[in-house]
Amino acid sequence: MLNLKPLAVGVVLAAAGHSLAAPPKQLGKPEGRLDIIAWPGYVERGETDKQYDWVTAFEKDTGCKVNVKTAATSDEMVSLMNQGGYDLVTASGDASLRLVHGKKVQELNTELIPAWKTVDERLKNAPWHTVEGKHFGVPYQWGPNVLMYNTQVFKEAPTSWSVVFEPQNLPDGKPNKGRVQAYDGPIYIADAALYLAKKKPELGIKDPYELNAKQYAEALALLRGQKALTHRYWHDVTVQMNDFKNEGVAVSSAWPYQVNALKGEKKPVDSTIPSEGSTGWADSTMMHADAQHPVCAYKWMEWSLNTKLQSALAEWFGSNPVVPAACQVAAPGGAAFCQKNGFERFGEVKFWKTPVAKCASQGTCVPYSKWTQDYIAIMGGR
């Protein structure tokens, strides 16, 4: 199992004292290079579709040559940042606090990012990148984890996540066994908890990332049952898209990116957010504590907030911009992306965050280290 390395999850969410150097007060000359860890589809230079290119103009404008290392899970991102050698990472909320408290990322001087003032007020002080009033990340994009389905199997959108969690016949009369997928990452336990919060309200699940021992045991039991149904635990978007095209996979959790890409190929897929709601991600660009190219990094963080980039990226990935004004900027494909991708549904999404033992909704919760251990065991069939 590629991405769930012990190094990735060994960062303890310790006390919040940060001894890192203060952020810079001014920027010097760009260093000529920038190394970014990013989700697939997040940093495009027009190689897949020439209309979607927000790297070439940046390189020309700043002289900073951009190198991208894609990562498929948050744990992989944390592992890569622990190894070092990168300047920036587009971290989701289940990685960001591990990076902050592990002192792998540095506090940012938002005065060196003029476009900061245009960031969505719902995200400016979000707890996944703001600690003790200090900002450790610049919002990049956000969106839900959707239920992707084959429209030849489902003539109407499924209304519940039960189609991937519970044994049943799908609308084509065939069992779902071997035709569903689950996400290859411990944070997926929260998806099971979100489903159970509505199916079994007596469990009292208030937050899918804050589970007591009983709630957690129920989520694991559901996931162990799901194991028998799964065709694959997905983390590679290209592999998942091929599975929908060639392997008979009918329904799975997914990112809007895969949905958009498959639709672009005229494949019979669509997506929905079922009645139980969805988990999701709000990603922040964070700078490594030992970034070798900090000026280029600040230049990129400023660039990342321009409305043209935010518009094109939101349409391309199927996400939502972190700059509200970008909703009014035409994207290359002409889509009404903010309306389509749920910009107004922000409050319905349960954003990824790292589970910790001391939780807000109840006394004691199961920490992420345990999530990792148990989910690896489930995927391995134990």
Number of helices: 13
Question: For the terminal residues, how far apart are their CA atoms?
Answer: 14 Å
Mean of pLDDT: 93
Number of strands: 14
Give me the strand/helix succession: HEHEHEHEEEEHEHHEHEHEEHHEHEH
The percent of residues in helical segments reads 25-40%
**Measured on Cα atoms, how large is the radius of gyration?**
20 Å
Shape: globular
Stretches with pLDDT under 50, minimum 5 residues: 1-19
**Class by SSE composition:** alpha/beta
Largest sheet: 7 strands, mixed
β-sheet strand percentage? 15-25%
Protein name: ABC transporter substrate-binding protein
Pfam family, one: SBP_bac_8
Keywords: Periplasm, Signal, Transport
InterPro entries: SBP, Sperm_putr-bd
